[in-house]
């Protein structure tokens, strides 16, 4: 799932994210929910970029929820290109937040930035719906190890 | 016996591991609060003697989703305050994290937008925590006796042109008619509340 650097982020359904969360893999899945209009999301993004570039035991996926407001993904494409994002970026293509938000995390009310960290081998997971700062991601990853 | 004890131990662990449930659910009774309004006066729900209920709205100056809903929030108060369901807006954002949400900026914003409802500052963030609010905007419709009747978003589209379900209006209309709220809980993409740094 996802695009390589310089490519266009694909649209995904929540079922595909569910696969990512549930299918056992050797890497800890770090899944961040963001949008181009969300200032704290953009502020914390370098932490995810750095994490994905420096750790082989972790897979980072940046899930844009931009389509919620604007059905045209052009803003996301431009953003990914301008920031030269190296992490996997996908665009969530779902209509009803009353359905898809619960599939990701029952306690989540839909506020972004939000991050889900899953150890797919044990099913251990941790979820935060707030902006993360230097060192936070490493701590959260340790929680699911 | 040993087996029972180990089962008990497992049960205890499970209870300990379960996340502590914060905030109100539909059907819970909320505690009244006293917060400073943009006019400098302290406001409590108890001050609204003739209210039949409340549209409590966690909101702020800065969130793009809040901005998209601003006109609709004003319209909600225009439509329902006179029917006994005033909008009570509460800004819980910490101004050290979000400078645009300082009390002074709130005063300016309320003036500029022509707020004719209270816009309260939740300086300690204790009210937002008590409610379990996480988003802006995040709505709690309360009945007269402060029981939660609805939690969630204002409607089902941030783009006003695409709204097909007006959740808050449906909830208040139902309460005014003495009927059950058709959709008591919804979710929507929004901004996180800017909590004070730990």
Provide a concise account of the structure shown:
The complex is a heterodimer of chains A (145) and B (198). Chain A is built from 5 helices and 7 strands; from the N terminus they run βαβαβαβαβββα. Chain A has 145 residues and is α/β, with parallel strands linked by helices.
Describe the structure in your own words:
In chain A, strand 3 (58-64), helix 3 and strand 4 (88-92) form a beta-alpha-beta unit. The longest helix of chain A is centred in the first third of the chain and has 16 residues, at 39-54. The radius of gyration of chain A is 14 Å and the shape is globular. Chain A is an alpha/beta fold. A six-stranded mixed sheet of chain A has the order 1-4-3-2-6-7. In chain A, 36% of the residues lie in helices and 23% in strands. Chain A has one domain (11-144): Glutaredoxin. Chain A is built from five helices and seven strands. The relative contact order of chain A is 0.23. Chain B has 198 residues and is α+β, with helices and mostly antiparallel strands. Chain B has a single domain, classed as 3-Layer(aba) Sandwich (Glutaredoxin), CATH 3.40.30. Chain B has helices spanning 2-17, 64-80, 103-113, 126-131, 167-176, and strands at 35-37, 42-43, 53-58, 87-91, 119-121, 135-136, 138-143, 148-152, 190-192. In chain B, a hairpin with a 4-residue loop joins strand 1 (35-37) and strand 2. Mean pLDDT of chain B is 92; it is low at 13-19. Chains A and B meet through helix 4 and strand 5 of A and strand 6 and strand 9 of B.
């Amino acid at each position: 799932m996802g695009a390589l650097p310089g490519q266009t982020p694909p649209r995904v359904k929540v079922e595909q994210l569910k696969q990512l969360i549930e299918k056992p893999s050797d890497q800890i899945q770090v899944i961040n929910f963001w949008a181009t209009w969300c200032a704290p999301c953009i502020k914390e993004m370098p932490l995810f970029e750095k994490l994905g570039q420096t750790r082989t035991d972790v897979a980072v996926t940046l899930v844009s929820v931009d389509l919620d407001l604007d059905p045209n993904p052009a803003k996301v494409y431009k953003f990914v290109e301008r920031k030269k994002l190296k992490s996997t970026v996908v665009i969530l293509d779902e209509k009803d937040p009353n359905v898809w938000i619960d599939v990701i995390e029952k306690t989540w009310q839909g506020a972004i930035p939000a991050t889900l960290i899953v150890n797919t081998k044990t099913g251990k997971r941790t979820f935060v719906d707030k902006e993360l700062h230097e060192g936070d991601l490493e701590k959260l990853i340790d929680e699911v190890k | 016996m040993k087996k029972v004890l180990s089962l008990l131990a497992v049960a205890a662990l499970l209870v300990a591991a379960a996340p502590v449930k914060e905030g109100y659910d539909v059907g819970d009774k909320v505690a009244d609060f006293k917060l400073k309004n943009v006019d400098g006066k302290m406001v409590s729900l108890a001050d609204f003697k003739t209210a039949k209920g409340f549209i409590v709205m966690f909101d702020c100056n800065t969130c793009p989703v809040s901005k998209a809903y601003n006109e609709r929030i004003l319209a909600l108060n225009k439509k329902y305050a006179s029917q006994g369901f005033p909008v009570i807006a509460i800004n819980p954002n910490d101004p050290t994290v979000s400078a645009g949400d300082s009390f002074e900026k709130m005063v300016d914003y309320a003036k500029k937008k022509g707020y004719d409802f209270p816009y309260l500052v939740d300086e300690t963030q204790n009210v937002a925590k008590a409610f379990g609010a996480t988003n802006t905007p995040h709505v709690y419709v309360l009945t007269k006796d402060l029981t939660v009747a609805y939690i969630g978003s204002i409607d089902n589209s941030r783009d006003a042109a695409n709204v097909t379900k007006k959740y808050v209006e449906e909830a208040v209309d139902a309460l005014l008619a003495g009927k059950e709220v058709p959709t008591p809980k919804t979710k929507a993409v929004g901004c996180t509340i800017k909590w004070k740094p730990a």
